[in-house]
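2024-03-11 09:14:02 INFO worker-7 job=invfold-0412 stage=load source=structure_tokens
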């Protein structure tokens, strides 16, 4: 009997890792783990590309700073429930479609990412540079995936009762965005 879920890989079909929007910008070790988890989720869900909801789910699963950020939310359990249900019902209408609101320029060289997820990766890198350099962290990516109201991550947050605009405001507060640490 063949397994229902195919063997999962953090790499693209054909053995290539997903190409980041800027090949010279390497993510932090924590963010690399997030990207690997998001790729596994996309493969398991039968999606062609990593989208912002995959990134959000992987951030909550892998990044302690992002998890701590959401621990204070009374709707945290509901958010996790929506993300878990994605592959068994909620979110199935997204399968086979590309996440792209048209609101941000498309980053075409980021194979393996939806246009919004590729843009979020670039935004996270730029945010880290504005913070003082160093690799992008999970909190940078969280800020990036809630910027566009058409992002799937924003839809999931909204369904869980969490306002993405409030998340962005809180992430951008100086206390929530320390300069030290990578």
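2024-03-11 09:14:09 INFO worker-7 stage=emit residues=182
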């Amino acid at each position: 009997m063949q397994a229902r879920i195919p063997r999962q890989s953090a790499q693209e079909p054909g053995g290539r890792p997903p190409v980041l929007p800027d090949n010279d910008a390497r993510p932090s070790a924590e963010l690399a783990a997030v990207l690997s988890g998001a790729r596994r989720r996309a493969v398991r869900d039968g999606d062609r590309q990593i989208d912002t909801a995959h990134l959000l789910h992987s951030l909550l699963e892998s990044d302690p700073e992002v998890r701590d950020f959401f621990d204070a939310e009374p709707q945290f359990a509901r958010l996790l429930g929506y993300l878990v249900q994605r592959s068994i019902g909620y979110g199935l209408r997204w399968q086979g479609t590309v996440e792209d609101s048209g609101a941000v320029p498309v980053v075409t060289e980021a194979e393996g990412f939806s246009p919004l997820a590729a843009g979020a990766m670039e935004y996270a890198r730029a945010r880290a540079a504005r913070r003082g350099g160093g690799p992008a962290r999970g909190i940078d990516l969280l800020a990036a995936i809630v910027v566009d109201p058409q992002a799937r991550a924003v839809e999931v947050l909204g369904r869980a009762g969490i306002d993405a605009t409030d998340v962005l405001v809180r992430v951008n507060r100086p206390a929530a965005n320390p300069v030290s640490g990578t």
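2024-03-11 09:14:09 INFO worker-7 stage=report msg="The mean pLDDT is 76."
2024-03-11 09:14:10 INFO worker-7 job finished
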